Amino acid sequence: MPRSYVHLSLEDRRKIARWHDAKMPVLEIAHRLGRHRATIHRELKRNRFVDAELQDLSGYYALNAQSKSEARRAGLRKLIRHLELRSVVVDRLKTGWTPEQIAGRLRLDGSELQVSHETIYQFSYSKDGHAIDFWRHLPEHRRRRRGRGKRRAQAHRFADELSIKLRPEAVDGREEFGHWEGDLIQFRKELGPANVTSLVERVSRFTLLLKNADRKSKPVMEGIISGLCPLPFHARRSITFDRGFEFLAWPHLQASLGVAAWFCDPQAPWQKGTNENTNGRARRYLPRETDPMALTNHALVAICQRLNATPRKCLGYCTPAEVFREKLLAEPGTLP
C-alpha cells in the first residue's frame, strides 16, 4: 500500500538548505531524505528567496521556505477561501452548535458548500484563526485542545432492587421511548442553594431544565412531577438518577406519576452518560458563576429550546425536538 504524502518539515528544509549550499546533487538530497527528486526540485524552485536589488542574497533559506509553504497552505483553507461558509459556521457556533453538529447538518441539508468538523477545529487553532479569536466561538472557549475532567458524586444508600444493573434491556439499549435521566446542575456555594434540575430523554435526547430553590429532595421531586405531568404515560416511563440525597424522595415521584426509578452505582454518575453529556452542553449557558436566583423560567425555556433545536450526530443530525415529537406522535391516540 503506497505511503500517504507527508509535507516537508522545518527540519527537512534545514537539511536541504545545508546540503544545497554544499553543492550536493538534488538526486542525492532526495535519496537522503527518502523523497522523490521532483519533490526537492519543486521545493527549491517554489520556496527560493529572491532579492531583485541584492542578487547575492538570493537563495534557499529554511525559515523563509517554511514561511512561504505555510502561507500557501493557509490560503487553501476552506474557511479562508469561502467567507460565506465561514459566516454560516460562526453564526451556528454562536448559537451553541459544535463543529461536528455543523458539519453533519450541512451534509444532511445537502448544502453546496460543506466543511468537516476537523477543518473547523484546525482553522480555529491556526494562526489565522487565532488572529481573529475564532476559538472564542467554540463550545469550550479554549485556545488549545485538552481533555476534560470528570465529576465526582457522593454515594448514598438505595435499595438493591433499584440498581441500574436491574434496569430492563429495552431501557439500556434505547429501544423504548419515554425513559429519562435526571441530575442537578449546581452553582457556586456563595451564590446560594438554588439549582437546576436537568432531565433528558434517552432516545431523543430531549432536555428539560427546572429551577429549584434548594436541594431538598421533596421539592426537587415535585418540580420533576410538574415538568413531566403534561406528558402521556408512554413518554415518562422511568428516570435514572445518581445516588445524591436530593433524589431520596423518589417514592413521591412514583406515587404521583407511576414513574419507575433506577439509580447508578455509588460514585458512578457516568452510568447515566446521556445526562452527564447534556449537563456539559447546558453549562455553556449556565456556568458555575451564574447567579441561580436571577434565573427565570423564561431563560431556562430559551436554553431548552436552543439545546433541543441543535442537531445531534447520534440522531443522524436531526434535532432532539424533531425526534421527540416523532416518538410522541407514534403512539396511537396521542394528540399533537
Automatic annotation (TrEMBL):
GO cellular component, one term: cytosol
Alphabetized GO MF terms: nucleic acid binding; transposase activity
Annotated GO biological process: DNA integration; DNA recombination; transposition
Source organism superkingdom: Bacteria
Keywords: DNA recombination
Residue ranges of every copy of the Integrase catalytic domain listed in the record: 164-328
Protein name as annotated: Transposase, IS30 family
